[in-house]
């Protein structure tokens, strides 16, 4: 049986092709001797050659094989800052950029700095991408969950944040930071601007560091939503660098590029005093620097080809082709899930995932308990056995007590989606036939986090 | 004034050129579309093209942009294992290889796993590359130093290990592992086979994990010494995977390749039970995987061009040119240091460093104390101010009480060495004239570790 991987946010593993311009530049920077050869023009676009030259000029000694500054090559950080400024309409500085081997190490760095003991808590969404719970556990802190509201499309309500902060504080936890994943993983929602303003206000009032996981900023699939960085929101409210400590995480692994294997990314760090900044730098320097190819690619995604560049049109065809196909896949899967008995599914407004809710029959829950598995894990295992489709049980991300979900990526290539849908439907209908209750009733269980996937 | 960097093991930053074959393969793997084009043969050697094909075939879906298995691409690990087996004459398995973003993250992973509290100690050499002290501090363990014997060429004596282990144990420390850096950083010595056997025996008897930092395995500059991996030594003594937990660290940043910016490397993990192995895997998976270019380069350094390959001769010219030049630079600098009043310097048998001892006049020590600096830091600062030469004070690596050193890399390009030597001599003679005691006397001070460099 063919295994159909819908479990991991790893687009290239499912056949997504790399963006040509980005790979041309990386290829040239890996072998700069090519830049002096006339034959190179037969193989590479002229703007890729030009960009490779520009990048090499930014790297001291043009040495792509040297350790860089521990924050990353200064010229590349400046280019990224210019890209952020162009995106947001507010100033950004290369001095605030820390280039990292993907977003995960950046998150670990911040957790390492924020967590002093188990008395320090970090507010994280439930459901959440389990990088956060893992990192908090690794660094010995307390995971302070807040629930996203499934009924309102995985809404993030400030009342809920306040309730959870107060409750944590009453237990002696010092809540130090709020993690917001926008667009959401595993939940796929895109926050509205007004909502973001309230979140910024909340962090300001409560004295929290805002850790903004914005790695899906270029994965937006609906007309009525746009990505707004939290920094843009904060600046538009008049808050300056002095008002709010804010970290924005970005990665080359997501977006339309999906370059997971390159391990590139950065965090933009604003609103910390010089002492804290120095500590961040110290932690960054422990592993010397992030890989230079990842640094270069980070600069490329924040400064892709522009109108008039030789590659612009073909680049836009590739880019829009990927994004629009992802949007169609998201819609097709969402509609399929919603067409089924016992499944409800919020729209994937962004990111790479759907997180459908399973309204499981009591009999299925009983079968899962008899098998010693969480009900959604039991469902996912049965799905895998019957169809080869791999999804991640909702219990891997945490979910409201008594609810069951699974995360399904929208990443299988578009021509595979109809077969996935029909196999899924066939399985689900049989599953429901096997377990359907005469009168449906859901048994509540505790929210748990077991293990998810990226 | 021109700054002459002799402080960091970062060869490409000082003009060392990348090895052409390695970069050709990386360039092709970054842009696999090139492999189908006939023009590619005009720009790349045929064996690089062939190797790129072979590597892509090892990567599922040929997707160099996908996350790999958290240990690294299996086919690349197998290739590395074959390289280890060819080097050592003993079996190696790809299942035991963990590919990492350079050796530093691998060291951190092991420290994270070994250290449970400040009651767990790790035996480390003094002088030591301060990655170890930093990592132990970060993970909350106890640094248990053992002194290398400068008189015997930075000899590593098992009696000293035993003494330090016993002393640590008497303080309630559980000593869990022994770090050996071979060839030595910052000390440049290459361990003799008999010495290594005693170290293996010691670890076996004391129940210690042997953490073998072998990143300089291809940097050997003397005829009478060879690199022997600790795994080869242990296997040659008849110890199997069941007898001794052993981790060997390797990196693409050192050797003749010196590809620091690629952040590639691996650890070979043998002699742990399945439970521990699973924990290592879990920690490795927290950051998903190491970067694929670094993984590919790790496979290339362990399987470079062979006799008969198109690139073999030019590869060997590049390789031997770098190694023999490094050997000449090491010798020239060592002789220069030893020719000076108040400096003694052991041979750099390997690695990338000299670690000369400064027999400082009492008056210089007094001047340093008046300036609030460690005496060798004071010397290094004066050297920098007078000549632009940057070295790292010995206090950054730890040293025997009452001794002063500095670490000087052998990495400036060969044509720069005479100027460095003459500037250095001129400075040193003036420094001695300024501070020379009528009768020389050294004041003892405590061994300290401040901060070193890679």
UniProtKB/TrEMBL annotation, chains A, B:
It is an enzyme of class 2 (transferase). Its cofactor is pyridoxal 5'-phosphate. GO terms for molecular function: L-alanine:2-oxoglutarate aminotransferase activity; pyridoxal phosphate binding. It holds the Pfam family Aminotran_1_2. Pathway: Amino-acid degradation; L-alanine degradation via transaminase pathway; pyruvate from L-alanine: step 1/1; Photosynthesis; C4 acid pathway. It comes from the Eukaryota. Its EC number is 2.6.1.2. Residues 61-414 form the Aminotransferase class I/classII large domain. Gene3D superfamilies: 1.10.287.1970, Aspartate Aminotransferase, domain 1, Type I PLP-dependent aspartate aminotransferase-like (Major domain). InterPro entries: ALAT1/2-like, Aminotransferase_I/II_large, PyrdxlP-dep_Trfase, PyrdxlP-dep_Trfase_major, PyrdxlP-dep_Trfase_small. GO terms for biological process: L-alanine catabolic process. Keywords: Aminotransferase, Pyridoxal phosphate, Transferase. Transfer of C3 units between the cytosol of mesophyll and bundle sheath cells to maintain a nitrogen-carbon balance in the C4-dicarboxylic pathway. Homodimer. Belongs to the class-I pyridoxal-phosphate-dependent aminotransferase family. Alanine aminotransferase subfamily. This is Alanine aminotransferase 2.
């Amino acid at each position: 049986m063919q295994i159909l991987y819908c479990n991991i946010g790893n687009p290239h593993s499912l056949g997504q092709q790399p963006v040509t311009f980005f790979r041309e530049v990386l290829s040239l920077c890996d072998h700069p001797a090519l830049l002096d050869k006339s034959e190179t023009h037969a193989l590479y676009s002229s703007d890729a050659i030009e960009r490779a030259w520009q990048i090499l000029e930014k790297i001291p000694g043009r040495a792509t094989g040297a350790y860089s500054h521990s924050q990353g090559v200064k010229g590349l950080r400046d280019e990224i800052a210019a890209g952020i400024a162009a995106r947001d309409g507010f100033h950004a500085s290369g001095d605030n950029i820390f280039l990292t081997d993907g977003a995960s190490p950046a998150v670990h760095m911040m957790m390492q700095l924020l967590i002093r003991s188990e008395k320090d808590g970090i507010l994280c969404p439930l459901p959440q991408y389990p990088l956060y719970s893992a990192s908090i556990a690794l660094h010995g802190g307390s995971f302070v969950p807040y629930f996203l509201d499934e009924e309102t499309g995985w809404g993030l309500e400030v009342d809920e944040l306040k309730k959870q902060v107060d409750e944590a504080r009453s237990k002696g936890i010092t809540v130090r930071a709020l993690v917001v994943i926008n667009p959401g993983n595993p939940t796929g929602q895109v926050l509205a601007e007004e909502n973001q303003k309230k979140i910024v206000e909340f962090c300001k009032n409560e004295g929290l560091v805002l850790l903004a996981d914005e790695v899906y900023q270029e994965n937006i699939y609906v007309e009525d939503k746009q990505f707004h960085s939290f920094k843009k929101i904060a600046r538009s409210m008049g808050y300056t660098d002095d008002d709010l400590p804010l970290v924005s995480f970005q990665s080359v692994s997501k977006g339309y590029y999906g370059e997971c294997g390159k391990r590139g990314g950065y965090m933009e760090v604003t609103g910390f005093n010089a002492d804290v900044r120095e500590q961040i730098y110290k932690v960054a320097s422990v592993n010397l620097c992030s890989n230079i190819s990842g640094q270069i690619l980070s600069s490329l995604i924040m400064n892709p080809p522009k109108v008039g560049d030789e590659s612009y049109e073909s680049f836009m065809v590739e880019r829009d082709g990927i994004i629009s196909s992802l949007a169609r896949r998201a819609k097709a899967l969402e509609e399929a899930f919603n067409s089924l008995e016992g499944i409800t599914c919020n729209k994937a407004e962004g990111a790479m995932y759907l997180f459908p809710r399973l309204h499981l029959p009591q009999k299925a829950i009983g079968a899962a308990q008899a098998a010693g598995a969480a009900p959604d894990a039991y469902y996912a295992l049965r799905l895998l056995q019957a169809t080869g489709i791999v999804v991640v049980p909702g219990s891997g991300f945490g979910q409201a007590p008594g609810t069951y979900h699974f995360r399904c990526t929208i990443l299988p290539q578009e021509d595979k989606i109809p077969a996935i849908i029909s196999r899924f439907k066939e399985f689900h209908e049989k599953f429901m036939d096997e377990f359907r209750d005469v009168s449906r009733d859901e048994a509540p269980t505790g929210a748990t986090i077991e293990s998810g996937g990226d």
